[in-house]
Structures are given as C-alpha cells and as structure tokens.
Amino acid sequence: MSGAIAFDTYAFVKKMRDAGFSEPQAAIQAEALMALVEDRLATKTDLARVEAELKRDIKELDVRIATVEANLKRDIKELEIRLEARITTESATLRKEIAETKADLIKWMVGLAVAQLGLVGGLLLAILRAIPAAH
Predict the structure, then answer these.
(1) CA–CA dist 78, 96 (Å, integer)
(2) Which residue from 29, 38, 39, 36 is spatially nearest to 9, judged by alpha carbons?
(3) What is the largest CA-CA distance in the chain?
(4) CB-based contact 38:3 (threshold 8 Å)
(5) At 82, phi and psi to the nearest 5?
(6) Which of 13, 46, 56, 97 maximizes the CB count within 10 A of its CB?
(7) What is the dihedral of CA 11, 13, 18, 20, to 10 degrees?
(8) CA-to-CA distance for 33 and 21, rounded, in angstroms?
(9) Residues with Cβ < 8 Å from 127, sequence gap 6 or more?
C-alpha cells in the first residue's frame, strides 16, 4: 500500500465547475485538498516508526518493572530476616522473663510453705503444751 490515496481530481474539478467555480479555482482547491489530506495521512513509514517507538518503550517498561520487582523481592527478604531476628530476640526475652517469674514464684511458694509449717508447728506446740496442763 502506498502513501497515495485514490482521488479523482478531474471529477472534483468538474463538480466544482458545475457548482459555479472557474476551472483554475477548482484546480487550486483540488490541489489544496490533496496537499491537506496527504499531509494528515499516516504512511507505512510513519506507522512503522510509531510501532518501533512503542516496542522500545515497552522494553524500557519491562526493564523498569523487572528492576522494581527485584527491589521489592530484596526488600521483602530483608524484612523477613529482620522479622525473624526480632521474633527470636523477643522469644528469648520472654523465655528469660518466664524463667525469672517461675523462680520468683517458687521462692514465694517455698517461703509461704516454710511460714505455714512454722505456724502449724507453733500451733501444735501450743496445743501440746496446753493439753498436759489441763490434766
């Protein structure tokens, strides 16, 4: 397909002449119309250039998308590593606090048990002392 379009200038000039234009006026109008149409029509070369530009732009976008994707993957991996480290640290801290709380609880329980034994022992001694005196 060529860049030219089928335009019957003779038929156009004849119609213009029949409408009241002189032949030179009709011919000039036909030339002006052809120049305008040819100037505005895209040729195969124009379309090929636009297609090549679009392909280049798409390739550039593909590269940019791949770069963003790689950066996101790297960032996600870094976040995962930091999160795992934070979880490990927090887990160790919680285990330590639980162990300390457990040790404190055992101390309190042993202390209360000793105090309770002392109190029960004292009460038993008081009861035992009181029983012989009553006889």
Answers:
(1) 27
(2) 29
(3) 159
(4) yes
(5) -65, -40
(6) 13
(7) 160
(8) 15
(9) none
Q: What confidence tens digit (pLDDT) does each residue in 38-87 have?
A: 777 777 888 899 999 999 999 999 999 999 999 999 999 999 999 999 99
pTM score: 0.48
The three state secondary structure string of the chain is CCCCCCCCHHHHHHHHHHCCCCHHHHHHHHHHHHHHHHHHCCCHHHHHHHHHHHHHHHHHHHHHHHHHHHHHHHHHHHHHHHHHHHHHHHHHHHHHHHHHHHHHHHHHHHHHHHHHHHHHHHHHHHHHHHHHHHC
User: Which tokens sit at 79?
Assistant: 């976040």
Tokens of 35: 């120049």
Structure tokens at 24: 């030179």
Query: Of 30, 41, 24, nearest to 7 (Cα)?
Result: 30
Show the tokens assigned to 84.
Answer: 């795992």
Amino acid letter at 117? L
